[in-house]
Amino acid sequence: MKIVIPGGTGQVGTILNRALSAAGHEVVVLTRRPAHEREVEWDGRTWGPWAEEIDGSDVVINLAGRSVSCRYTSANLRDMMDSRVHSTEIVGEAIAAADRPPGVWLQMSTATVYAHRFDAPNDEASGVIGGSEPDVPDYWSYSVEIARAWERAQEVADTPHTRKIALRSAMVMSPDRGGVFDVLLRLARLGLGGPVAGGGQYVSWIHDRDFVRAVEFLIERDDLRGPVNLAAPRPLPQRAFMRELRSAWGVPVGLPATRAMAELGAFALRTDTELLLKSRRVVPGRLLAEGFDFAYADWPEAAGDLVRRRRGDRDRAGAEGALVSGSS
Q1: Does pLDDT of 122 surpass 70?
Q2: Model pTM?
């Protein structure tokens, strides 16, 4: 198959590109700064020669959008909204104009669309959409509105010959440098991976290999449309999540942090506490109902695999470095 991935140079795009290319598919990445073979320039906003890649493709997986790993200032929130909505709109226009439109359009969305809650999990049928929860920062509702506008842009696109799926993804955990797992593991290794603000808020996640398998599953199942949660079936409170991560690496202690301490840490890392404090209790109702089998349904097993792969990468890098030093 020919698979086009707008915005495919980030963590999730790299995971998909690597796996889908290894499976024998032709993968084309649309990016602002093409640097490798099969990367094509686009700006995520205006029409250009990149649209020719979509015409005749089999699958489009749109991942474009400003990273959420930043301070949630008014300017950054607006940039998140604009980059997601405009890129989705222009992808929809390219699909609508194609002589041979793709069979399926997978559009990245986010589990952040659901409400901050502890009492029950959110699935696609009965989950509560956020935006009106009491006792949360006002700007959290804007994050939900970004997610809703993102999905609306795909929903209203006039693409009658292309099946559309919105990927309400939890955090994708992979051993790659620079991803969310990398950040959490660094905190754990520094002894800072304890409960944050009590640690009762739920963490939803998905192992990178299950993420890829779920995408492949949705491509193959031509009867599935609409929003689909991409999350492991058993989210867990943050205190337990970090305890299992520390255990997998072999760190005995994780210092707790108050909300105020989390604010200071997030400021230092140029990110925002919503990523730490919002309770994202999301479950994959549709995937489970359709028979998808998670290879990593539980976090302890997933964390163990990710740590082994991370250590394997480190050992290989060390061996290569020793080989270079020995031959110099």
Answers
A1: yes
A2: 0.93
